[in-house]
Design a protein that fits this description.
This is ATP-binding protein. This protein is an alpha+beta fold and 152 residues long. The chain has a single domain, classed as 2-Layer Sandwich (Heat Shock Protein 90), CATH 3.30.565.10. It is built from three helices and six strands, in the order ββααββαββ. A six-stranded mixed β-sheet has the order 1-5-6-4-3-2, with helices on one face. A hairpin with a 3-residue loop joins β3 and β4.
Amino acid sequence: MALPQRTTMARPTMLLGGHDAGFRQERFQLPAQGASVAAARRRVRTRVPGWGFCEDVCDAAELVMSELFTNALVHTGSEQILCVLRAEARRTLYVEVADQGGGSAGPAPRQAGAEDEGGRGLALVRAMAAAWGDRPGLNGGRVVWAQLSGVV
């Protein structure tokens, strides 16, 4: 099974002015602090099951949010981190994390050694997501997103 590759293409967006019956979205902003990682995971765990996604997709979304939020926390100079959960047609779930900048040009998976305590987050995201990527955010920040697919 081939792993999804990182892409810098913008992820699909809903057309302005229209509403799809299967469209759901939640946006929340948290302080760039270690305790906020758990808060972001809880938001995923409380929202995504109610949108009709199976347990596997909920688990994957929780892990992806945790990894993307942690990367924004560790690798940028952000004070606040914006998170977005978006479900389209009850079959595709997007997890997005936007930082305020101060980091590198974009996320890049590392090859973590056996003794390394970190460096596996984006490899996990790549393994869990159907697609993932990044794009420029507002005011010099970055948005890193992952697309999760699952039949409800």
